[in-house]
Write a structure and sequence with these properties.
about 0% strand; globular; 2 domains; 19 helices; mainly alpha; single chain
Length: about 475
């Protein structure tokens, strides 16, 4: 069950919110946990027990860590928790990838395991790990209320694809939260904006990349390759931004404040700036739980490079068990090091050049991210940078670009405008305007119509 589905919007949400608001405040966490487990069970009826077991185990371990008088016992319990959490993630997400690559190198034969990836495991595992690590660091004591801890880990708005939050960000509101009409109205507005971004932008511009892929790498020219790359760049941005806004909006309606995940990343002037704006909570997690514990930038330039390499290798691997994700992470590592030591200040002093630079970097990065076949990826990148840009292009290559550009230019233009701060500034300024409210009611029903006539198009980040 995904947020942008009629089943979720017209069945799950009304029933859940009716039960939630009808329940006395002190029992609402129970409704939240039960509702979240039902939400997860609809999509993962088997793996719901895996998540529940993970919650219970880490709840017990966190209490043990918090109550330990010696750091040795606390460290041992933390190690057990991290080993189990990472072990489960490795088994479901990475085992086959490592087995296949070891066999390819050594010539050995080993069977792979036919096992589906549990929905949201990369996200909720990171939340669980941050919880027990923070308890070990004595950032806050372990939660003694199992329902509160379960609600933090399983809360359905951000369970599947974030934002990744820490326990201390939500614990005060788990204990006491005020729900007022203004928060509900703001939450509804954000939910509808996110739905519009997903259904009316991401789902529609997705057809551009699909059309380019249908034509094939040898059936397009350089201009068409760039057009397709920018189409996918817009698709993944509005797909993930739409989900995040819907999650934050539902958080408002429930009485929570989730951190924002995006800050107009396509307006960045450098890769460094981009990653301050894109998937903010994931970047924060790697900084606080990997980069800083490794020493960050406090132990000299060599260690800075090594620590940054580790972070970006893990960031790529976190997104998926495939070589293109690792290459994607290394692509950003190399660029960030070049910026750090050579030209970051220049880009910051000359933002126009920085924007032009990112107009190249952003689509290239998403092509690497999206194409898992390395041979096909190589051909596509060569096509983007002019390999056989004139000779070798099949007859009709330019006609394909003209056809696709004529079909999608207006959609790309709308996406580019919506990728700036302008839309959210206007919404924030005029959110109490009756005409804006009527507009979003109208847009909501357009989304409902599109969902009723289109094939299912789940959020891209659900597979991570």
């Amino acid at each position: 069950m995904v947020f942008s589905s009629l089943e979720f919007i017209f069945r799950f949400l009304p029933i859940f919110f009716l039960a939630y608001f009808a329940t006395p405040a002190r029992y609402r966490n129970i409704v939240l946990v039960v509702g979240s487990l039902v939400f997860y069970a609809v999509g993962e009826p088997v793996y719901i027990f895996l998540m529940m077991a993970s919650i219970l185990l880490n709840y017990v371990l966190a209490i043990g860590i918090s109550d330990s008088r010696g750091r040795g016992r606390a460290g041992m319990l933390l190690a057990v928790g991290l080993a189990v959490d990472l072990g489960l993630l490795f088994f479901f997400k990475y085992l086959n990838f490592f087995v296949e690559n070891i066999c390819a190198v050594t010539g050995f034969r080993a069977p792979t395991i036919d096992v589906a990836l549990p929905l949201g495991i990369s996200f909720y595992t990171f939340q669980i790990m941050s919880y027990i690590i923070d308890v070990y660091r004595k950032k806050y004591p372990a939660g003694r209320n199992l329902i509160e801890v379960a609600a933090y880990i399983s809360m359905f708005p951000q369970l599947i694809a974030g934002p990744i939050v820490t326990f201390d960000e939500v614990q005060p509101r788990l204990r006491e939260r005020k729900i007022n009409p203004a928060n509900i109205e703001n939450g509804l507005l954000l939910f509808v904006v996110g739905l519009v971004y997903k259904v009316m932008l991401a789902n529609q511009i997705a057809a551009l990349w699909n059309d380019v892929m249908v034509a094939g790498v040898m059936g397009i020219n350089t201009a068409t390759a760039w057009l397709g790359a920018w189409g996918y760049s817009m698709q993944i941005y509005f797909d993930f931004l739409g989900y995040s806004l819907m999650a934050i909006g539902m958080g408002y309606m429930l009485g929570f404040r989730f951190p924002k995940n995006f800050s107009n990343p396509y307006c960045a002037v450098s890769v460094t700036d981009f990653w301050r704006r894109w998937h903010i909570t994931l970047g924060r997690w790697f900084r606080e739980y990997v980069y800083i514990p490794l020493g960050g930038n406090k132990k000299g330039q060599f260690r800075l490079v090594i620590n940054t390499f580790i972070v970006w290798f893990l960031t790529g691997l976190w997104h998926g068990a495939a070589w293109n994700f690792i290459i994607w992470g290394m692509f950003f590592f190399v660029l960030m090091m070049l910026e750090k030591f050579i030209y970051l200040r220049f880009l910051e002093k000359h933002p126009i050049i920085g924007h032009l630079y990112m107009l190249i970097i952003i689509p290239v990065s998403w092509v690497i991210f999206n194409i898992s076949n390395l041979g096909e990826l190589k051909l596509y990148l060569l096509r983007m940078f002019g390999n056989h840009a004139v000779s070798g292009v099949p007859l009709g290559g330019m006609e394909k670009f003209v056809s696709l550009f004529g079909k999608y230019w207006w959609m790309l233009a709308i996406c580019m405008v919506c990728a700036t701060p302008l839309p959210m500034r206007l919404i924030s300024r005029y959110k109490n305007n009756i005409f804006l409210k009527i507009l979003f009611v109208f847009l909501f029903w357009i989304c409902v119509y599109l969902l009723s006539v289109q094939k299912s198009n789940p959020f891209l980040y659900f597979r991570f």
